[in-house]
């Protein structure tokens, strides 16, 4: 009886997991194609100061799939991490970001803007990442202090000593670090103070619930104060309304990113946004 129940269970679950597996395999095959044929695109989302200056942008990866439409990075990045293609994708992103920074440098409206790039834990911890960055920066000649690497806590949890060492080397090249989705991972406050970070990024889940939930407000406030006492800049992501922005300013936050200011957009649209930005480019000095 147990045997037949086991068989029934298999018969019940198999078609579902096979369908899911087939879907994953097909998505993965498409992902490899996209890597080989460079079917990706970078979008840029504005980062804005409390006094309304355009500070820079975050580069966000887009995959315009020929038949599926835009596939969300939240869907394909984890897959790319599991299959190892993330290193190639990530290298393309970094190259593209450097080329964009150089293009920005040649236009008054965009000169001096910073660009934040997301790194997956897998990519950051791959062997040879430091020399890859060294070569890329030497080849492209970008102003390194304008390039910011966004890491999540998952990139930092194990082997903290070697992570600190690697971050130190990269910082000596002039690169900056931002800790993305802060408050959602497992950071220990004890080593947070030892990491050579420049910025904490308040996760959008806290920003979303800011107005309705005192707890979210308390967490956002704590992150802002933590940043202040550690000497780190703090930026809030996922800011969608004027009310959220005002609340965050009241809590001492100085930088914002979210649909309230601008959606992620293609490079040409972002350059146009920068040209139309109300504050003059000269005001960006000393950001
Ligand atoms: P993230 O780095 O935390 O990026 C913020 C996400 O929030 C982006 O989603 C952005 O489009 C979205 N967002 C921005 N403003 C708002 C807002 O006001 N409201 C809401 N609801 N959402 C907002 P996206 O572009 O789908 O990216 C999702 C995640 O995928 C990113 O989260 C990041 O972890 C990852 N990702 C994106 N591009 C790359 C990349 O080039 N490399 C790696 N390794 N990961 C990437
Ligand atoms: Mg990010
Ligand atoms: Mg984030
Ligand atoms: Mg996120």
TrEMBL record:
Residues 24-278 form the EAL domain. This is EAL domain-containing protein. It comes from Roseateles aquae.
């Amino acid at each position: 009886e147990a045997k037949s129940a086991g068989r029934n269970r298999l018969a019940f679950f198999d078609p579902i997991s096979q369908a899911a597996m087939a879907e994953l395999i097909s998505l993965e095959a498409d992902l490899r194609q996209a890597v080989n044929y460079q079917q990706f695109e970078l979008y840029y989302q504005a980062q804005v100061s409390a006094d309304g200056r355009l500070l820079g942008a975050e580069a966000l990866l887009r995959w315009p799939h020929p038949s599926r439409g835009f596939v969300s990075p939240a869907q394909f990045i984890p897959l790319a991490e599991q299959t190892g293609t993330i290193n190639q994708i990530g290298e393309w992103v970094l190259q593209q970001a450097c080329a964009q920074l150089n293009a920005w440098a040649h236009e008054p409206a965009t000169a001096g803007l910073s660009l934040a790039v997301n790194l997956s834990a897998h990519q950051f911890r791959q062997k040879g990442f430091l020399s890859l960055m060294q070569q890329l920066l030497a080849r492209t000649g970008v102003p390194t202090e304008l390039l910011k690497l966004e890491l999540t806590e998952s990139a930092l949890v194990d082997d903290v000593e070697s992570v600190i060492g690697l971050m130190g080397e990269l910082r000596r090249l002039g690169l900056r670090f931002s800790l993305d989705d802060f408050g959602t991972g497992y950071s220990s406050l004890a080593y947070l103070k030892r990491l050579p970070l420049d910025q904490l990024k308040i996760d959008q889940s806290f920003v979303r619930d800011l107005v309705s939930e005192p707890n979210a407000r308390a967490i956002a406030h704590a992150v802002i104060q933590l940043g202040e006492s550690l000497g780190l800049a703090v930026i809030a992501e996922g800011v969608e309304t004027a009310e959220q922005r005002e609340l965050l300013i009241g809590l001492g936050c100085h930088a914002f990113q979210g649909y309230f200011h601008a959606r992620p957009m293609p490079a040409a649209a972002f350059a146009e946004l920068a040209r139309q930005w109300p504050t003059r480019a000269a005001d960006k000095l000393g950001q």
